[in-house]
Structures are given as C-alpha cells and as structure tokens.
Design brief:
60s Ribosomal Protein L30, Chain: A, about 35% helix, about 170 residues, disordered N terminus, five-stranded mixed β-sheet
C-alpha cells in the first residue's frame, strides 16, 4: 500500500517525459520540435462536401500547383521556390488575394499535423512576402492531415500530401 503513491508519481513523470519531445521548433525548417499545443486554435476545419472547394466558392485553388515539402519539414526547398515566385509574379500584376493552406501526411498526431501545416503555410507566406507580395494580401490556414490528395499509406502518397496549396480570390 505504501508503494501506490510512488507508482502514480512515477507514472506521471514518465507520461510528462513522453510529451516533452515536441517543444518549440527551431529556425531551420525542421519540425521535430513543434509544440504539443495546437497554436492554430480557431481555424475551422471545412465541411467535406464533394465538389466544394475547401476554401469556398469564390476561391480558385487550381490556378497554381502546390508546393511540396520534405518529411517533417516546413522549409521551401530550392526546387519548390519557383512555384512560389510564379504565384508572387501573378499577384503583383493583379489586385487579388491569396490563401495559403498547409497540409501534412497522415503520420503524427492531429495537433502536431495542424501545427506543422501552419508552419508550412507561414513559410510559403514569408517566401511570397520576400518576393514582393504585400503581407495584407496573404492569408494562411492549416488543415493538418485533413483532405489528403492521395489516400494511400505509402511514401509516394505521403509525399503528395505534404504540401501547401494556393487559393486565389476570384
């Protein structure tokens, strides 16, 4: 009976140690240290009606190809930077706005994937700003692992789902 309180304290310490593995992310685009908390609270997940854009009827999400990311990363690679520049050039010649939506593959917790999706959207946003787009014309949202483009559970599917999509206002 005297060991029971010790057991619960030990169990609590082990549980806390397991949670500590995902703390603040570094600046190198490596997402292995994202926070446990979902810092994009309040971002509503869309209704999953077939044929309806996740960003609404006044947003064209098919005008530009998505930017893809490496596993557990939110850095825009040099191979993908051209896609961001293409969107930036288009926006500089128009009065339209853009929504950048971040997505992840199915691996990881819902909270972790929402945080990583937000980091991916923010990374693309910062690239657009660096390419001359006004920050006021860019909105970001994270959908985490919701709405995969490929429902498979293999590396090819996961690579397609690690992305940021552009939605251009109509």
């Amino acid at each position: 009976m005297k060991l029971r309180p010790f057991f619960f304290v030990a169990l609590a310490l082990v549980s806390l140690a397991g949670c500590k593995s995902k703390n603040n992310a570094g600046n190198n685009g490596d997402a292995t240290n994202l926070p446990d908390s979902d810092y994009v609270n309040g971002t509503p997940l869309p209704q999953r009606d077939e044929g309806v854009s996740f960003m609404g009827p006044n947003v064209d999400r098919n005008k530009f190809p998505p930017v893809h990311f490496g596993f557990d990363s939110y850095s825009v690679s040099s191979e993908e930077a051209g896609r961001v520049r293409q969107v930036a050039e288009y926006l500089q010649d128009s009065n339209k706005r853009v929504i950048v939506a971040g997505f992840c593959d199915e691996r990881g917790t819902a909270e972790y994937n929402r945080a990583l999706g937000e980091k991916r959207a923010e990374s693309v946003r910062e690239s657009l700003i660096a390419d001359g787009v006004s920050a006021e014309r860019i909105q970001t949202v994270s959908f985490g692992s919701e709405m995969p483009v490929d429902s498979g559970s293999n590396e090819s599917a996961w690579a397609r789902n690690r992305r940021a999509e552009f939605g251009i206002t109509r």
